[in-house]
Write a structure and sequence with these properties.
globular; Jelly Rolls; mainly beta; 8-stranded mixed β-sheet; about 200 residues; 15 strands; 5-stranded antiparallel β-sheet
Length: about 200
């Protein structure tokens, strides 16, 4: 496994995002990569019984987030608003449930999902990729506390959240728990965060 400091990785990704559309080859680059734990420290903000979203970097072509997971917590079943997403495990183990869209689900309203394809438990160095063609999944922190690094080929401000029992989905605006290492109050949001 390779080791790299977070600032070095952000710099490399910014340079690559500026040269070409998308982030071609990102899965191979992140596979097995461990971010130097001390460089993650400013972004490690945990919440009891939940996971937190901690913004590291964002511009019009790239968004990098560190998620911190309490053991046993799970994301809702969600998509990625048409963006490519790479999910790199930095600590703990995870189980992923990947879903195929059977009907609806392209906007809020009726949505039917196929049965989940379960991946894991998987640990440090594993990379999961979500493409616009297969965007829907749920992430579960199998053993934690756990840390994941998320790289998006463009900022994701909202996503669809799916309820398979009711066969519906709804639009959810996303929020951060910290921005550039600064924790936000639970009710504080960052809707005016400018893309620079």
């Amino acid at each position: 496994m390779g080791v790299m400091c977070l600032d070095g990785l952000v710099g490399l990704l910014r340079e690559e995002a500026g040269r070409k559309p998308g982030l071609e080859g990102m899965g191979e680059r992140l596979g097995g990569l461990v971010v130097e734990p001390s460089s993650l420290r400013p972004y490690l903000h945990f919440g009891r019984g939940r996971y937190t979203r901690n913004l590291v970097y964002r511009d019009a072509r790239l968004e990098i987030i560190v998620n911190c997971w309490d053991s046993g917590t799970a994301s809702p079943i969600h998509d990625h608003d048409g963006q490519e997403c790479w999910f790199s495990i930095q600590a703990g183990t995870f189980v992923m449930e990947n879903y195929a869209l059977v009907a609806g689900g392209l906007g809020p309203g009726p949505a039917r999902l196929g049965p989940p394809e379960v991946v894991g438990p998987v640990g440090v160095g594993h990379v999961d990729f979500r493409s616009p063609e297969a965007p829907i999944h749920r992430v579960i922190a199998h053993e934690g506390p756990a840390v994941s690094l998320h790289v998006y080929a463009g900022p994701v401000a909202r996503c669809l959240v799916f309820d398979p029992r009711r066969q519906r989905c709804a639009l959810r605006e996303l929020r951060y728990d910290s921005i550039f290492g600064r924790p936000l109050a639970r009710k504080e949001t960052a809707p005016t965060l400018a893309l620079f």
